[in-house]
Amino acid sequence: MNKSLTAVFILIFSVFAVHANTLNNVKTRGHLICGVSTGLAGFSSVNKNHQWSGLDVDICRAIAAAVLGDSEKVRYTPLTAKERFTALQSGEIDVLSRVTTWTLTRDASLGLNFAGVNYYDGQGFMVKKSLGVRDARQLNGATFCINEGTTTELNLADFAKIQGFKYKSSLTDTIAQSKSNFDSGRCDALTTDQSRLYALKTTLKDPSSAIVLPNIISKEPLGPVVRQDDDEWFNVVRWTLNAMITAEELNINSNNVDAPTKNSEANRLLGNTGAMGSHLGLDKKWAYNIIKQVGNYSQSFERNIGTNTPINISRGLNALWKDGGILYSPPFR
């Protein structure tokens, strides 16, 4: 083996070693670097005071609370759909929490792992009321605004093939551009995850001019993503989400987390008994810090996209398994 080839292997090994020790890197650095969307109300958006909020942002905050004991120790990196996977693969970010759909191809061919699902979604359609359309199957010949580099393109192609209609695509780099094109009449319909449609509708010049159609044409399980070959970090991110779900199951929230409990699983979750945190490389109060500083899953959902917000989304599939939904966490045992 020549010297130049040896140097290449050393460089590759060094990069892998850095990426494969994300938990220690975050602890040493003192803050989490979290990849989020470039701006989507309810999921990840920034206000005029440069403060980030949203369902996906809460995952970032929860991870920081678990690892660093402080949910504010996060630096957010806004990423387009095209940029998101490269940023994670290269180590630019520690975790991706950006309305990203879990698919076989992404899970098995990009060197990435999905750590769970924080929102069960499906692709839908938004049209102007003036178009007179009440069903997506009536959109033969329409022009669709689409965010390039997403599962949306492929899902629409499959749907059109099944329905036997033709269409045109107006592709953009960001969902904000797609929304702008839809708002200005450059396309007949905007298609993306239905949750995003409800969020985007609130930001139209005239929200009452558009409707979200009832059709759902795909499964879109959205959740946080990490690099492969770093099981320790994968476990931290996965069980951070599970802690928020389990806290809701046990009726533990940021307001009552300090109250004494006789529930054995609750005491294990909160670090009052056992050593759950040590299995993750964290201290015993890791889940307590998540719940105290960020809240349980229900609190995050209702605060960001629930029925009392402008986005006005009901729990639906994202209700707990015991409440008719499919949200479910393995046990803390």
Descriptive keywords:
three-stranded parallel beta sheet, D-Maltodextrin-Binding Protein, domain 2, single chain, globular, 333 residues, alpha/beta, 13 helices, 2 domains
What would you note in describing this structure?
The structure is a single chain. This protein is α/β, with parallel strands linked by helices and 333 residues long. It has 2 domains: 22-120 and 222-323, D-Maltodextrin-Binding Protein, domain 2 (3-Layer(aba) Sandwich); 124-218, D-Maltodextrin-Binding Protein, domain 2 (3-Layer(aba) Sandwich). It has 13 helices and 14 strands. The strands form 5 sheets. Strands 10-9-11-8-12 form a 5-stranded mixed beta sheet, sandwiched between helices. β2 (45-46) and β3 form a beta hairpin. α3 (55-68) crosses α9 and α3 runs antiparallel to α12. The longest helix has 19 residues, at 231-249. The chain is globular and about 60 Å long. The model is unreliable at 1-18 (pLDDT under 50).
How would you sum up this structure in a few lines?
With about 325 residues, the chain is an alpha/beta fold. The protein is built from 13 helices and 14 strands.
Chain-wise SSE layout:
Layout: H1 3-19, H2 22-29, E1 32-37, E2 45-46, E3 52-53, H3 55-68, E4 74-79, H4 84-89, E5 95-96, H5 104-109, E6 112-114, E7 119-121, E8 123-128, E9 143-147, H6 151-163, E10 168-172, H7 175-183, E11 189-193, H8 194-201, E12 210-212, E13 220-222, E14 225-227, H9 231-249, H10 264-270, H11 276-280, H12 286-293, H13 297-304
Parallel strand pairs: 1-4, 1-5, 9-10, 9-11
Antiparallel strand pairs: 2-3, 6-14, 7-13, 8-11, 8-12
Helix pairs in contact: 3-9, 3-12
